[in-house]
Fold:
Amino acid sequence: MGLARRNFLKNIGLAMAGTMMVRIPALGRAVMPGGDLLLARQPDTAWLASLYDRGQTTTYLKSRNELQYIGMPVGGILCGTVYLGGDGRLWLWDIFNLNQEGIEPKEVDWKEAVLGQAKKVRSRDGACYIQPSKDIRPLEQGMALKLTIGKETMVRPLDEASWPEIAFEATYPMATIRYIDPALPVELTLEAFSPFIPLNEDDSGLPVTLLSFHIRNKGKVPVEATLLGWLGNKAGIHHAKEDQHERVNTSAGGNGWKGVLSAVRAKDAASTAWQQSPDNGNLCLAALDDKATVITQLELPLTETSFSRSRQEAVVHRIKEKLIAGVAVRHRLLPGRDIRTDFAISWYFPNLSFKDIQGKGRYYANHFADAAAVVTYVREHHARLTADSRLWKTTWYDASLPWWLMERTFLNISTLATTTAHRFQSGRFYAWEGVGACEGTCTHVWQYAQAVGRIFPALERDTRQRVDLAIGMQPDGGILFRGEAEKRPAIDGQAGTVLRIYREHQMTTNDRFLRQNWPQIKKATQFIIRQDRNGDGLEDTPMENTLDAVWDGEIAWIAGLCIAAVQAGALMAAEVGDTAFADTCKAYVQKGRRNMETQLYNGEYFIHQPDKIKGRSVIGSYNTCHIDQVYGQSWAFQVGMDRVLDKEKTLSALRALWKYNFMEDVGPYLASHPGGRPYALPGEGGMILNTNPYKEAYPFGVKDAWQLGYFNECMSGFEHQVASHMMAEGMTTEALTLTKAVHDRYHAAKRNPFNEIECSDHYARAMASYGTFITACGFACHGPHQYIRFAPALQKENFRAPFVTAEGWGTYTQQQQQGRGNYRLALKHGQLSLRTCCFEQASPAAVVVKADARQLPATFTHENGRVTITLKQAVTLHAGETLQVTMTS
Structure:
């Protein structure tokens, strides 16, 4: 890394010259890793160099007032939303199937930029961006520590008010919180998470939060330390009635754990209506220690005696009365000794349903009868679940790439652990665009979300087969873009879905998925080809798109996306032996590419050619510089395809986006272009969706349309898509700068770092951020072909990063020096079968391949700086095994 950074500093003047010039001294008022505001006059070179530094974990501190907005999702994926706060307390608790829009449905007043035009901003329009949510606590939950040192006893709640300093390390999916008080003889650390194991969606989908405490006695005398946790009984929070129901706390336990099960029951035992209520269910507070003390009714506020009381008999209360459960664990620590104590909070609210949607119930109900059964499973498999989760955290963050980049590109997958996304009892994945807003696992939004298909590919594969190619598939091959909640296809969603099908095929180990679904896949691809009415390879049928309007004409971003999709169709056709259709697709791609590069390229960037009859009487992007104009090429890089558009013209288009659309401070632009939603505010950097370089009076054709507001916004999902593309094309600094702009907008001093907002909270499109990680690694894989490739975009001399394939994950390491290259795949989990590997190195004379100590016969070819190695026989690596490739000149 040191060499790469020195070279960068040495050559920064040349690298940033001309149209590539990075115009940002400071990204407005960006917040640096230490939490200080970046001064506007800081030298360009120092700031830009900091983008490449490895850095350290982003740590938010109480002393800098950075804890109040933090809400890291720490429930299992597809199980509702439970937030981990900056001080370790849990909040929000959207687990009761309320199906509300936004994490906090509200309207806030906002004055647009300097124009002072007041407007009401709803949850779906960015209310939580302007006024971040905090301290939403529908039920009581907390932890406290009691210390006895000699004759002195003290009680310290684990909350922000009770500690001089608290440090929150933002390493999703497992956060570390340090409670700091130099006056105490103990060190206390909390590790909070739900099991999260890539490729294992079931164990990653447990409705449970684990609170793992580590206590060390750093003093010179023994210490008695007792941890007490409490949880309010709020089952039936919305529908339980005083005259019909009652609250019940009962002790629970099993092998290695004790706790309290909290529920609501109908007073009339014969009543069945309550069984169907959305908030009928239960919660369980448990200590994973069979020596724990159970308190079925705990009185708050706490006293010293609260920690020693025990009550195991069942307690029944009226609905309006508070009923709080408690569990305590006591330890005696000698000087220098330490202990780890684990608590679990689980929930079970299975009655999920949405109107007119094919599916109901929660997937976890297939495996568990109540919240206590969840704890029993977690305790039984605790060693494996925690070890695998910690192994993934270590594997992900043990990279040479900048730490902040690893955080921002990955943490958006936490969207799966919110009420944006669900899994029905049937196993069907179902999602909104953002929390409770815009139904139907929308194809034109979710196709941007690269993370899910790479981390939990089985979910995406099932969605393609069960929904897109079945529920949503029409006789003509069109795919309804919201499943059964829609009656039309969207052309960008259609193309993106074909590309996702190719990705899902690559993330398997055989061709069963492709062959089983090929007739429908072919129909979907043929549908795209038929939307080219004049036969020039450029889609021109008026259809819905992600900007919520029907556009006419030949539109670069849509035409290019269709070209990429048909190219994917050609590759899939070739794999199943449908050579005639593969030839049809290739002809479309060649014609479309040629005409897009000649008819839709204006010499600087790609545009929207109006319909010949309607002209510019309807909404469109026309001569403006549109953020997605070369999205098709961006998508191609995500699935290892080569060019679908000319490289120089594509680079010119990306440079135009950098020149016209990226702004270190969006404030002045928004002041003169009102109407958009507030996803970036004055003083913050970002990339505007559309700009008007030609200063046309009505650049979007129409004067008035509600969709016009989109063009003046910074929507992070689109920004991540562009950043991933820039990374793939060698515009590394621009890619890092754009991603850092988003990262800084979501610094905890301003708002929740884990909630990228577009149309409501935890917006799915933001998971495009994972695509930037993919292109930073130059990663491609094809499971059925037993193929893997790495081509890092930076730090080529000494590169290290995680990788995930169809059945296994691990760490890739690359070292290059003086004509010698070492390339190493260390598998950490699962298995990986390989026949072909591809790396970047100049003209090697010899290649040696070893699986651990065993040398493998192989041949190699070299072309355009890439070395492709083919093993005589495929090799299967298992966890703990390594493939080592050495190349010498």
Summary: The two ends are 23 Å apart (CA to CA).
